[in-house]
Amino acid sequence: MKLFKSRFRASLVAQSTLWKGIQMKHARRRVILIVGVVGLQLALGVQGWAAAQSAAHPLAPHVKADFNGDGYEDLAIGVRAESVGAASPDQPIPRQGAVHVIYGSSSGLVATRSQPSQLWHQDSPGVVGTAEDAEAFGAALAAGDFNNDGFSDLAIGVPGDRESGPLDPLGRGPGAVNVLYGSALGLTAWGNQLWHQASFGILGTAQVFDKFGDALAVGDFNKDGFFDLAIGVPEDNVGSADAAGAVHVLYGSASGLTASGNQLWHADSPGIQGSSATSGWFGLALAAGDFNHDGFFDLAIGAPATSIESIDAAGAVHVLYGSAAGLTAQGNQQWHQNSPGIQGAAETLDNFGSALAVGDFDKDGFSDLAIGVPHKSIGSVFRAGALHVLYGSASGLTAQGNQLWDQDSPGIPSIPETNDSFASVLTAGDFDNDGFFDLAIGVPGESTSTVQAAGLVHVLYGSQSGLTSLGNQVWHQDSPGISSSRETNDHFGSALAAGDFNNDGFSDLAIGVPGEAIGSIAGAGVVHVLYGSVSGLTAQGNQLWDQDSPGILESPEFGDAFGGALAAFDEVNHTSPSMEILVSFYSRPILSQNVSSASRTARLRLSILARGDLSMGFWTIEIENTRRPIALATSACLRPREPCRRPRTPRWQWRRS
Length: 657
Known about the structure:
This protein is mostly beta strands. A six-stranded mixed sheet has the order 36-3-2-1-40-38, with no helix packed on it. Strand 29 (495-499) and strand 30 (508-513) form a beta hairpin.
C-alpha cells in the first residue's frame, strides 16, 4: 500500500438542503479535510447540522432565537408594563408593554452605546397595531423560523390588545399576537403581522378579555420545514363554559404565518379526551416537542384549573400529536395526577399544568415533558409546589419511569415553604453540553428568614436515567459571584430562557427578576444571565441587565417588570446516539466507522489510510443516522497547495439511504 505523503487542506463552505427540499436553519457549514503523512484526518464541524441530525428526528428543524442568522442565539425580554409612545405630548401610554432584544456574540450577550439593543412596541415605526393602555405587549414570547429563510422570527403576545373586539370593564381587549421577522440585520418591521380572533380566516370569535396570546409555543407540527405557532387563549368561552380556554394554531409558509389551514382546539373538540369546563384555562401553558420521535412536533397544553374527578382546579395536561396534516386528535392524551401510574395524587387547587417544558432528559431520542404543579401542598406546607416528569417513547408520553420532584426530594438542598410556588416556571437546556437536557426550575416565591418572596432557581441535570439530583444546583441573588442581592418581592426566577448566547456549545440561562428595584425605582426589573460550562452553569462571566444598563434603550420606571417574559430558544432534542460515517474515493469505500455525537456542537474526528494518489480525486462523505436512515453526501477535489476547483460550491444533499 502506497501512502500519499503530501499534506494539504481543502476548506469547503457548503449549503445544506434537506431531503424533499426542507432547508436547515443554518445554511452555511464548514467541512475541513486534512491529509497528513500517515493518512487523512477528517474534522467535520457539525454545529447546527447536529441539531437537524438530532435524536428528535433527522429532519426536525432546530428551534432557536437567532434573529440575525450569525450563529449566536439572541435574547428577547418582555417588559409587559412598560409605558411607551405618547398618549399626549407629555404623557406616555401607561402599561402598554415593550420587548427588548439583546444580540449574542462570541463574548455572550452584548449591548453598547454604539451597538444598542432593540426596543419594540406597538408604537414602533412600521409595527402593525395601536399602542393603548394596559395591553401587556410582551407578556409572552416565542421564537421560530416561520418562513424558513434561515432567520428566527419573534412572536409577541399582547393578551390585552383592543384591536379585535369588545372590552372588559377595565378596558382590556380580547388580545392579539404581533410577529416580527428576522433578517441579516436582526428583527425588522418589514412584513410584520398582527393576529387576533377577528383576523381574516381565523377560526373562532373574539370575546371580552379572552387573553389571546397569553401563552405561545413554536413547533413544526406538519413537518413541512416551516415553523408553526400555537397561541393560548386561556379565558376563551367554549359554549356555555366561561373561561374554559382554547388554543389557536397558525401554520408557517414561505410568506410566514398564514391563516390557511389554521386550527382551533379546546377540550370539547371532536375526539379530545376530557371536556370543557368553566374556568378550566385550557391553553394557559404550552410546550412543543417530538414525544414519539416520528419527526412531527407535538403540542402539550396546560389546563391547570380543570377539575379532576370532582377535585376543583386539580389541573390537567392535554397532548396533541403532529402529522402531515398538522396537529390531530388521533392518539391524543390527557394527563393528571390521578392518571394510572402517575406518582402523587390530585388535590384541590394544585394547578397541575401551570408550567411546561420539553427536553430529552435521558437522551433516548424522545422528547420528555416537565409539568409544573406550583400550588401543590407538600405535607402540611400549603402551595409549596411540585414537578412531574413524563418520558417519551415510540407510543408518545408514558407513565413508565415518571418522576415527582419537590423541595423535600432526596438530595435537593432546600425545604418546602408556604407559597414558594416551586416549578411555576420551567425551561430546559444542555448547560454542561453532555447531550442530556437539564431542567431549570423557577421558585419565585421562595423566602428566607428575613427576605420574603426573594425567589430562587433549582437546576436538575439529565442522565441516562433521566433527571437526577446528582450535581443539582441552587441559584439566587446571594449566590457567590452573582451581581446583586436578595430583596423582598424580587421574585427571582419568574421567567426563564435557555440559549447558547456565545455559541460555545453550552446552553446558558437567562433569569427574569421582574420585581427587582433599580435604585429607588421599585418593580423596575432585571435579568441575570448565567453561562454554561463543562461543569454546568457557573457564576463566571455572569451578567446583569436592566433598562439602566449601557446600550439598553429606555430607562427603568416604577412597576415596569423588565424580565417578566423571556425568549431565547426552545430546542427539542439535539443529540444523535449513533451515526455511521462512510468515506469513499471515486465511489470506492475507504473507511466506515460508527461514531457518537453527544452534543449540539460536535467535532467528529477519524483517521483513515488512503490508497494511491489522492491529489486529483473526488471524496464522498456519507453520514447515516442508524435510528432513522438518512444519508449525507458531499464531494470535494483535493489538490496540493491550491484550492479546490471542482465542484466549486459543493452542496450537502440529504437522501434516503
